[in-house]
Amino acid sequence: MKRKILSLAVMGAICFAGSQSFASMINQQNARQIVGTKISIGYAGYHLHYKESSNPSDKDTAWMNGGKIKLEYISQDKGFLGHRYAWGTFMYAASSNGKYYGANQDFLGDYHKLETNTDESIERGEGGFGYAQIIKNKFIVKESIVIGEQWWNRKIKDGVDKEGYPAKGYEEDYGNMYAGLQLEGDYYFSNGLSVGLVAMGAVSPKNESINQMYNKLNGDTYKMGKAYRWKVALPISYETGRLTFDITPFYSGWIFHKSDVKKDYIDGGGYILSWEPSSRTEETGFYANIAYKF
Q1: Rounded CA Rg of the chain
Q2: Residue 19: what pLDDT?
Q3: How far apart (Å, rounded) are the C-alpha atoms in residues 66 and 107?
Q4: Alpha-carbon span 92 to 66, nearest angstrom
Q5: Residue 151, SS3?
């Protein structure tokens, strides 16, 4: 919890440092009122698909329901690189009826197919700052540096495999900080409608303090290998007065490389080796938001 609060505070400070005071931000003479401060809140829903690269049969699937809040600021003043631009988001989504597909090892050492339920919860805080170029009040291009962190709690419930053997569940906590670049382009029509394209790429380095997974079953904290995050989104918005309604289909995900190897000592002497395998996580869904411009 302390790490989450600290991460969100740092991202908020970065966004604030990339902007000016929030006072007197609105340029009422701008035909589209593109500059200024906007806060949005809404629904976030997506299909989660997790798969281990070394064992494709080991995977999670779930429909995640949650919410998202975003604060965005574009300055009035135009410099050499355009208007100063800053933003920050926080999203939470969860599922209590996900599915886990994997394998269960019986007391003879044989493996059997396993299907059981999962609880999933994902929180993500993200912030960015950069510049925005406004072209004839119709087209806007935004470039920004992105810094964020994701917290994922993955709980595999107890179950029974296909052969009737009991399967012990387990729980994992992932914490992954990342940094990258984001590019967004939006075109504004005269009737209040706008359409856009967002592309983001980021990297999470191999470092236990910022890229880790904790397994509550054996008590090990694994230093994950280097990870990559991506996102592509298609925002569609309608503006009327100070309100904006939008729906944004998106596709995003992670690629994680294998973690370090841990020694787990067992009663009676000896040890077994454990690690978190490389994996790929994909999210396909949409945001539905309402925004207010100050």
Answers
A1: 22
A2: 44
A3: 40
A4: 5
A5: strand
